[in-house]
Amino acid sequence: MNYIQIVLDSFRQDHLGCYGNEQIHTPYLDAFARESILFERARSESLPTIPCRRALCTGKRIFPWDDRERPKGLYNRHKGWLPLREDDVTVAEQLSEQGYVTAMIADTYHMFKPTMNFHRGFDAFEFIRGQEFDRWKSHPLPPGALDRYTWPGTPERRLAVLKQWVQNQSDRRAEEDYQPARVFRAAIDWLERNAGHEKFFLWVDSFDPHEPWDPPKHYVDLYDRGYEGLEFIYPSGPIKGRMTEAEYNHVRALYAGEVTMVDHWCGQLLEAIDRLGLRENTLVLILSDHGKIIGEFGSFGMSPAHTGPKLYDVPYLLRHPEGIGAGTRVPHFVYNIDLIATVFGLLDAEPMPGLQGQDLWPMLTQGAPPVRDYAVTAYNLWDATWHQDWLYLRNTEENFEALYDLAADPERENDVAGDYPDVRRDLAERLDAVAAGAAV
């Protein structure tokens, strides 16, 4: 059996029709979901981008954090944002040892920075250049090239990212030149050349719909036709007093347009799987690492302090080549590393040493009890325990802890720790156990 893993960065669960959104256009992923097992409460145990992918590579928890020395050149200071360890055994390495041809197609440039080594173990990899702060092109820009993307007082670092983005994308002439199109067309090309292998593992990693939110106009027009103002394609931080209502609505439309563009190009890959006769012998997993704040809490971007469903509820869709479990919706908490363990079970492959995920297949198909009734996650200094509709949130460096009832308070406006001390204590103890390395 072949295995294709598709990672879509910063993809919010609530922007897919299969998860209940009736306004956003995602026909390809919605159709794929009808053929798949859909996870409603899947969690990356560690955020953001790099910690999550370390877990996907190794099948191991990244929290509790590893505070080893950072290599030169890593400007991101988030805990867990570190290269793979030399002694890590990756999915690609393990499957390669068992006869799989392995390949990675990705434009998530953080994985390809010096010393990161996320391409390790792949027989072939293709780094699609051009995302965000990827220092790909360096030609000077004409005066005023950034004016339509910024407001007065935009921080220098944000200006630097936007400048690099505009330089990188300056040769676009058609939709085929946009990042998702380049990523998924490269993946299709690899499949067309390699479909004849006895078994293969293909990891496709699209940085979109991460910022900058800069899709072709026809996608944005689906959600905000006629807008003529500034294009804040990379908003970040508080927005109170900065944006007009029209600008605010347009930024949300930019993200929705990104989602629909990614759906379209991911759909071209899914169609290629069928066209090449691979559906009947290929396991496909589509997932995201985290969501994004798009105006909630009076902010845009991704702050650990906003830990909650908007950041953690992301799509996880697993399609078995025989259609087993199609249409099943899983309401239980599971981790990204559980999906890795499940994949190895379905491939009947020897898993990596130290794999910490749980094989979900007995729960999914044989009526076995859930493997977890809670989840512990971490994003930099903000740790959380999730149980039913409870969210316990803690930042020990800021001496902060709170308890939220997400069913009654989805926007996390009311700390109810004082009203439910037993719940707070129980969830804190569960978090302590994981932080001490005694449980997963």
Task: Give the strand order of the largest sheet, numbering strands 1, 2, ... along the chain.
Answer: 5-4-6-1-8-11-2-12
Radius of gyration equals 21 Å
Number of strands: 16
Globular, elongated, flat, extended or rod-shaped: what is the shape?
globular
Give the overall average pLDDT. 96
N-to-C CA distance: 29 Å
The secondary-structure class comes to alpha/beta
Describe the structure.
By secondary structure, the protein is α/β, with parallel strands linked by helices. It contains eleven helices and 16 strands. The chain has an eight-stranded mixed beta sheet with strand order 5-4-6-1-8-11-2-12, sandwiched between helices. Strand 13 and strand 14 form a beta hairpin. Helix 5 packs parallel to helix 7. The two termini are 29 Å apart. 45% of the residues are buried. The mean pLDDT is 96.
